[in-house]
Amino acid sequence: MLRYWQLLAIILLLGACSSNEDKGKLLAKVFESELYESDLNFLFRNKTFSIEDSTAISEDFIDQWIKSEILVIEADKNEKIEVGDIEQKTERIKNDLIIMELEKVLVDERLDTMVSKKEVEEYYNSHLQDFELNDYLVKVLYLKVPGDAPDIDKMGGHYKLRDEKDLNEIDKFAQLYATNYYYDEENWIYFDDLLKEIPLQDINKDRFIMKRSKIRFEEEGTYYFLNIIDYKLKNTTSPIEFESSNIKERIINKRVMDLREDIKNEIISKAYEQNAVTKY
Fold this sequence. Notes:
The protein is of the alpha+beta class. The protein has 10 helices and 7 strands. α4 crosses α10.
């Protein structure tokens, strides 16, 4: 972030306004260089911030501008530094930033963010090697309950989900007493993420998962209930429903990259068609 602000400050210095228009309040001065309110307008254009955030962003930019001005002015005094070369590099950086902003605006206008189920399936089937599991995936029910909650023993049977009414009983109990509760028969989670919630000790992970273990235990005044409903072996292919969001993001990112390239080619081709380019 520091380099970004410094870059902006340097570009602002080299492209400093020389017009007589109202620049607003003078915010800072370093030797003969001055920073005005109008010089910060680009920070907030088309964006909404709270008063506190706006103040913090402004202060941060002013501080970085001051530091950059001091260093740039000092560098200007050094005869070993070719300021002309730096100005050319800065101009290229500025142009790159302008082009990036143009691409962003035009991509936002054209980008289709809807991804069909068929597109997800086609991507998944053609990139199976990308979805190899490094850990077990599981479908689970887990429940974390304070030790002083009532009717804990009754949950000892319900959490195993052997009867149709069990899930309803667990849901009602969890809403009243659970400090953490998870059950989703459609979606998978990583087993290692589950271990962050439930302090399982001294287990053989492979055997524990493949047996679809159902356990309850108490630790430090808290009761834990865990039911492994289903699993996917590590080193196998991750199921498509688990990867769906990731695939949609990949597809959209690919669309963005393609759009950026198409937009640049369209604009450049149009300029040639209009005979706006002459190469000597």
